[in-house]
Every structure is written in C-alpha cells, then in structure tokens.
Amino acid sequence: MAARPLVFDIWQDIVRFIVTYLLLLFVVLSAFAVVYYSHVNRLTTSELEILRAKKDELNIEWRNLLLEQNSLAEHSAIESKAKHLLNMKRPNSNSEVIVTLD
Question: pLDDT tens digit string along 43-95?
Fold first, then answer.
C-alpha cells in the first residue's frame, strides 16, 4: 500500500465536504457583514446626534436674531414717529454741548 501525499487527502476532504465549507464561509462572511454594518450604524447615529445638536443651536440663534430684529424695528419705528409726529431731529455737531467735570 503506497502512501498518498497529504495534499491529495486534503483535496478529497474539500471535495467531499464542499457544502459544509461553503456554509462555513458564508457564516464567516455574514458575521463580518454584521460587524461592519453595526459600526456604520453607530457612526451614522453619532453623526445624527451631532446634526440635531447643531440644529438646536441654529434654532436658538435664529430666535435671538428675530428678537433683535424686532427690537431694531421697534427702535426705527419710534425714531420715525419722533421725526414725523413731533418734528424732532438728530442734533448736529453745532448744537452739541460737552459738559466736563472739574
């Protein structure tokens, strides 16, 4: 009885259990896919939280700008009424008086 080379025995084993080896390969690939997509999901969730925080900051800034716009509009309305209804005007440099304390 002649000794067969080890490579030949390994090849026969692979051919005999090809379905098992393919299933094992698919299980390993599936495990790597689960790990990869879990990582991608975590990154996406983290990015979403950052974007939501940025949105909240921008909303707060927008509200503050609206308040500032309203206060400036109110100031210009008062100035306009003072000019038209009361005939008031801004003082020029000739009518200004500087008071100094000694």
Answer: 999 999 999 999 999 999 999 999 988 887 787 788 888 888 888 888 888 88
**What pLDDT digit, counting tens, does each position of 34-47 carry?**
999 999 999 999 99
The Cα-based distances of 71 to 39, 58, 65 in angstroms read 48, 20, 10
Whether the model clears a pTM of 0.90, i.e. scores above it, the answer is no
**Are 82 and 88 contacting, i.e. CB atoms less than 8 angstroms apart?**
yes
Given the structure tokens 């990582």, which residue do they identify?
Answer: 39
Q: Round to whole Å and give the CA distance between 30 and 23.
A: 10
At 12, phi and psi to the nearest 5? -60, -40
21 contacts 14 by C-beta, under 8 angstroms: yes
Q: How many CA atoms lie within 13 A of 34 on its CB side?
A: 6
What are the tokens at 47?
């990015």
